[in-house]
Amino acid sequence: MKVPLCNSKQVEQKVLCFFVALLLLSNYSCKTNKNTTLPSTLNPLAEINLGPLDTVFTEAPYQASNKRINDILHTKLELSFDLKNKQLLGIATLTMKPYFSPASSLQLNAKGFEIKEIAMLSGNIKTKLKYIYDNKILTIDLGRTFKRTENYTIYIDYIARPESLEKYGYESTELGLYFINADGSIPHKRTQIYTQGETEGSSCWFPTIDSPNEKFTQEISITVPKKFLTLSNGLLVWQQLNSDSTRTDTWKQNLPHSPYLTFMCVGQYAVTKDVYKDKEISYYVYPEYEKYAKDIFGKTPEMMEYFSKILGIEYPWEKYSQVFVQDYFSGAMENTSASLFGDFAQKTSRELLDDNDEDFIAHELFHQWFGNLVTCESWANTTLNEGFATYGEYLWFEYKYGKQKADEHLYQDLQEYFAEVENAPKELIRYTYLSKEDMFDSHSYQKGGLVLHMLRNYVGDEVFFAALNLYLEKNKFSTTEFHQLRLAFEEVSGEDLNWFFNQWFLKAGHPNISVSYLYNDTSKSLTLNVFQENAEKNNIYKMPTAIDIYVKGKKERMNVVIEKQKETYTFSVPQTPDWVNFDAEKILIAEVSQKKSVAEWIYQYNKSMLFADKMQALTNLNTYIELPVVQELFLKAMNDAFPEIKKYAIKQSGILVKYTDTKLKQVLIKLVQKDENSQVRAEAIVALGENYISNDLLNVYKKSLEDKSYLVQSKTLQNIYYYDKELGMDFSKSFEKDSSIAIITALAQIYAESGTANENNFFVANANRFKDGDKYTFAKQYSKFLLNKNDSLINNGLLLLENVATQDKLWYIRLAGFNGINVLKNMYNNKQKDAIAKIDLLNKTKPNSPQIQQLQGVLSQTERQLSRISSIISSIKTTEKNSNLIEIYRSN
Ligand SMILES: [Zn+2]
User: pLDDT tens for residues 663-685?
Assistant: First the structure.
């Protein structure tokens, strides 16, 4: 599974993480790390008053792997749907055996089912079985004792009712099976049904042993109205038209996998076929995106070939499909041979110019080996799935676009990990998590990937990939703990690697290292001190690393192994070095502080080819920006080879403008006109808008409105608007028909400020086009727009906001809808106070004046509105979906 968190969203994510940390303290269960893309305006902390929170710390218990008592060998499902009631009608036939010891009873996970019949199946003969069911666990009396050499077959006729689970306190992200506009009652919304197994969602739609250390083969027959397509794991082996205008599709997977990877999806799609060797590849997109399917997914066969090659194991599953769904609460999910993606990643070729989601595609594909072929035995070992999938992104970028692009990506991973570890350092392998969902964090993903990168650097490519091959071969179709990974690396390298695995997988945090050096001109020697600052309680890290010493433009590399808290190295060096580069390959997960002169930082920027070195130089030089030599360097960095370096340099324009006014302007204009990366062009447009107001720029902006990039266009529209509001509104009108989210987000912001009643239609018409996290922006901008509009417009708007606050899957979007309503409530509160104050004053000064009567009319209308809003607010608070958010609502 991958969580969308693009670079530009880091700050907002940090805010949200902090926000969520507060929620967690008050004992909420939330799933930030599975949340979708957050809008750039997101800052919930600034918008709501959380009020006093109860701080409850719970001692986490040891989270053991699920005990194996019975083993499912094969799962056969026959499924159809009651679309009106959002229910699944199922018959499950499970072929089982005792795991080792004889068994006379069986426990299955089955959440919120209505059970119709349970029987033992012997050939065609059904013998009813006794069972107990508590809405979560089905305990079945097998009627006799079975030995491990005996298989038995259980027949279960049931109805799955996922939406009933919310009554029992399940989050809307835990329902396992999602009916989206199933009865077709919402206009302009697609009908889809899909499942989300990770972590324990599968038992919401079929009875199973819902644990990653269970594995089975499967056959799923899905009966749907014939206009729908279906997709599941394995191959479509049979299709049958039924007399009632339905069709039954049977999907069969002959290779075993874990229950959380079982998947099913129903919807209307255009399917584009591709091929990898003799295997079918397919892309399920919405019909209007058919012509872009290969633009989005077209690199998949090349990725499969590359991953198969470096791992030495061919893509293991029978086919590979990728499908989009709407209202998905996370980013993407690696269901075996059928990966699912939130439709935020479904883009036109023009939208792909601004951002593609190849990292998601690579991530889910790499899971097909790490996670699906070899599965973490329990969620304590989540990083064995997610750390590898995250590193799969690096491997793809490195292969396809070179080390520079891959390093840029890895640097963001490091920052994400640092942002999280600041508040909550945790072990990678964590047996004492509070909730399984907490395991899907920047430790399991980003730190996990970074640790693998460090391991690769230590053992070398040949050992690294041979060890991965051994690990996969030895454990395929099975489950592992991190020890199995260590043993594979030890077997291949011939080296005891406990030190590495213990310190990086079992220890929380990372070393803080200070580095300093002294050059002795007489002895021509350089003394380098390395000190581990946070090395309390045996917390000393062993770190093999490289130190590059640059003299007269030439580099000499020293390889050292840091093992003590304080290490001192002496090197013979002919003259004062230009630059001493500690951790020269920027491999260590460590915070390194090293005092350097401005000249050294500049030297580092100019000399290094590494993204991390350049970024480190610029962030350190930021404080010296008053120096002309540093200003020159920032201007130079705006033309760096790395787009992210360019963007960082451009972001400093607000300070640079004080010193290099005209020159900066010229550089920015040139970037807007010439840079090949649209994100860089957009950043330059933003910098121009923030720092310059001049007529000549209007021509630059008008030209930029013709840019192919939606992102550039959207930023340009905002610049024009802030330059000349009337002109901005005029141009915005001509972009209203645009389908890009970047454009409609920009328009929402402009209309929120200057829109009249005429623009209400824009918000109403586009409400459904804001997807996932962008709905947050919608709710916020729409409530701002509604302020000071007439009551009937506001009342219509309130219905839309109420819908967001009660219906959305994501808690923070429901909260945004709720906050929007409160913004309007505050407006009426002020209006009420104002009217009362004026009436009081008039009663004293001009009693019986006609103005009083007029004001009383205003007051009673305002009070009617307030009472209307109050009843909306209380109905939002009592919505089932919102029961877990009650603490937040309490303060409003
Ligand atoms: Zn993943």
Answer: 999 999 999 999 999 999 999 99
> From ligand 1's centre to the CA of 383, what distance in Å?
9
Q: How far is the CA of 167 from the centre of ligand 1 (A)?
A: 29
Ligand 1 center to 275 CA (angstroms): 24
Cα 495 to ligand 1 centroid, rounded to whole Å: 30
Distance 3 CA to ligand 1 centre (A): 8
Under a CB-based contact definition with an 8 Å cutoff, are residues 395 and 483 in contact?
no
**Closest to 721 measured CA to CA, from 695, 738, 740, 746:** 746
User: Residue ranges of the alpha helices (H) in 494-579?
Assistant: 498-505
Distance 254 CA to ligand 1 centre (A): 23
In contact, 343 and 283? CB cutoff 8 Å: no
Distance, CA of 10 to CA of 40 (rounded, Å): 9
CA of 655 to the centre of ligand 1 (A): 40
| Distance in angstroms between the alpha carbons of the first and the last residue of the chain | 35
* Statement: residue 772 has pLDDT above 80: no
For residue 260, report the distance from its CA to the centre of ligand 1, in Å. Answer: 13
Tell me the three state secondary structure of residue 373.
coil
**CA 10 to centroid of ligand 1, rounded, Å:** 19
Mean pLDDT of 203-215: 98
CA of 466 to the centre of ligand 1 (A): 23
Structural tokens at position 166: 């919310």
Query: What rounded mean pLDDT belongs to the chain?
Result: 91
pTM: 0.91
CB neighbours (10 Å) of residue 423? 10
Quick: pLDDT tens for 149-203: 999 999 999 999 999 998 888 888 899 999 999 999 888 889 999 999 999 999 9
pLDDT at 17 over 80: no
Pairing of strands 152-160, 87-98: antiparallel
